[in-house]
């Protein structure tokens, strides 16, 4: 009997024993194409020599030094590299071990920023419905996925949720994309006014929504308006790029595509690419300065922040992307994958929408294409899709709809940036067989 407490108590997953490029291999020798990078983690494949070597070298040189006493060369170099490529105004990097830690730290930094500015009444966080920002209590409170929150709700801080920018489901007939985006953004201003502008500290959103909606990019103009609204009321804009950042959407930082400047930016997953657990919260010089000139101490911190080996891995991952122009490759292969998905499933009666950016693509399944009616949750389409695709040798990321009847079952694809066109063709083949078997 295994003593591991697994994610799913009644499932006995195979044992992964090796990684080879875009593939994972189990103990029976079966190969699985990693079509979702786990959960958008393994962006440069599973056997990158440069990253492996960087980790080995760092362990030999220095395995650990607590940030209460030291900084380290890989952490300094990685912070420099991230800031050099980050949106304007971002100046500081606070390293953590993963995505939930990054969003949790962002919420606390927003709060501390305002207490240090002498605005302690600013305590409200606004986020969006059908969102996910992590599983620790603060991050879970920020998330707007009711199913995940339900049983923990007595433990969660009060967060307001407004509708996301989700054109497929929410745009009205005759409404232009632009007008829809402005309407979706207006929900934020309305909520700020309802709460009282001087009580709101921050708005948190994913630039391209990953797990909860399935690779949904914003419509043009949405984030420009969001930025304006935040600026108008002095509300901090926190962008959660834990899943969509680090090259995944064809830009190192996803928000660069929409030209939006966040005050706080969270990254993780692709930063360590699965080689090490690492995430980061980046913030503006203004926020940093306020803390620095105030108490001088961000009242947060975990033992493993700024871990040298994790930072060395992150440095090698980002350098690998930049040196080999992998981000341009994401744009090209992403366009290829999108086209293949459209030509194979564009007319499928149960595929309502195919969307995404870069190598971050989603398919939404519907019972009725014309009315966009989601499948009955009892059909458990996403669950069966995951199982069948896995049997067929494909790791993908299906998610059930949000059970409020608004979001259908969908599957998220986030293959490694190094995937060839032939490998992406293979993904589409397996998706097609899986759809035939599931629906
Ligand atoms: N934020 C987003 C947008 C995510 O997709 C995730 C994880 O899927 C998280 C935060 C939490 O990251 P982690 O699982 O590394 O804690």
TrEMBL record:
State the top-level EC class: transferase
One GO MF annotation is:
pyridoxal phosphate binding
Q: Which domain of life is it from?
A: Bacteria
Q: Does the keyword Transcription apply?
A: no
Species of the source: Roseovarius albus
Q: Which UniProt keywords apply?
A: Aminotransferase, Pyridoxal phosphate, Transferase
Q: Give the family, as the similarity comment puts it.
A: Belongs to the class-III pyridoxal-phosphate-dependent aminotransferase family.
> What is its cofactor?
pyridoxal 5'-phosphate
Q: Which SUPFAM superfamilies match?
A: PLP-dependent transferases
This protein is called: Adenosylmethionine-8-amino-7-oxononanoate aminotransferase
GO cellular component term, pick one: cytosol
Pfam families, alphabetically? Aminotran_3
The protein's matches in InterPro entries, at most eight in alphabetical order, are given as:
Aminotrans_3 (IPR005814), Aminotrans_3_PPA_site (IPR049704), PyrdxlP-dep_Trfase (IPR015424), PyrdxlP-dep_Trfase_major (IPR015421), PyrdxlP-dep_Trfase_small (IPR015422)
What EC numbers are recorded for this enzyme? Answer: 2.6.1.62
Q: Does the keyword Transferase apply?
A: yes
């Amino acid at each position: 009997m295994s003593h591991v407490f697994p994610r799913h108590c009644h499932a006995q997953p195979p044992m992964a024993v090796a990684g080879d490029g875009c593939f994972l291999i189990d103990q029976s020798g079966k190969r699985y194409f990693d079509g979702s990078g786990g959960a958008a983690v393994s962006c440069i494949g599973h056997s990158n020599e440069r990253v492996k070597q960087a980790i080995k070298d760092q362990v030999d040189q220095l395995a650990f030094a607590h940030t209460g006493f030291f900084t380290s060369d890989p952490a300094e170099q990685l912070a420099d590299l991230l800031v050099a490529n980050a949106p304007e105004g971002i100046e500081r990097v606070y390293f953590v071990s993963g995505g939930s830690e990054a969003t949790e730290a962002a919420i606390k930094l927003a709060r501390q920023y305002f207490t240090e500015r002498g605005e302690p009444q600013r305590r409200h966080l606004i986020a969006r419905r059908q969102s996910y920002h992590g599983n620790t209590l603060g991050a879970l409170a920020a998330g707007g996925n009711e199913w995940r929150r339900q049983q923990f709700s007595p433990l969660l801080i009060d967060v307001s949720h407004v509708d996301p920018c989700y054109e497929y489901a929410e745009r009205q007939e005759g409404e232009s994309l632009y007008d829809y985006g402005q309407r979706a953004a207006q929900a934020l201003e309305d909520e700020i006014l309802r709460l009282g502008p001087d009580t709101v500290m921050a708005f948190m959103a994913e630039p391209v929504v990953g797990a909860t909606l399935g690779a949904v990019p914003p419509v043009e103009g949405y984030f420009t308006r969001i930025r304006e609204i935040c600026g108008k009321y002095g509300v901090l804009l926190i962008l959660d790029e834990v899943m969509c950042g680090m090259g995944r959407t064809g830009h190192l930082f996803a928000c660069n595509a929409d030209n939006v400047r966040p005050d706080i930016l969270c990254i993780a997953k692709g930063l360590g690419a699965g080689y090490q657990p690492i995430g980061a919260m980046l913030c503006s010089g203004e926020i940093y300065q306020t803390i620095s000139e105030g108490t001088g101490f961000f009242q947060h911190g975990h033992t493993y922040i700024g871990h040298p080996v994790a930072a060395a891995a992150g440095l090698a991952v980002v350098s690998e992307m930049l040196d080999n122009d992998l981000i341009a490759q994401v744009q090209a292969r992403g366009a290829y994958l999108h086209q293949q998905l459209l030509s194979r499933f564009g007319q499928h009666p149960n595929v309502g929408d195919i969307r995404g950016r870069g190598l971050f693509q989603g398919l939404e399944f519907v019972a009725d294409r014309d009315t966009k009616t989601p499948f009955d949750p009892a059909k458990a389409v996403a669950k069966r899709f995951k199982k069948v695709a896995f049997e067929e040798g494909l790791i993908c990321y299906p998610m059930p709809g949000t059970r409020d009847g608004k979001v259908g079952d969908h599957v998220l694809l986030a293959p490694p940036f190094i995937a060839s066109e032939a490998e992406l063709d293979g993904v589409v083949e397996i998706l097609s067989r899986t759809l035939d078997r599931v629906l």
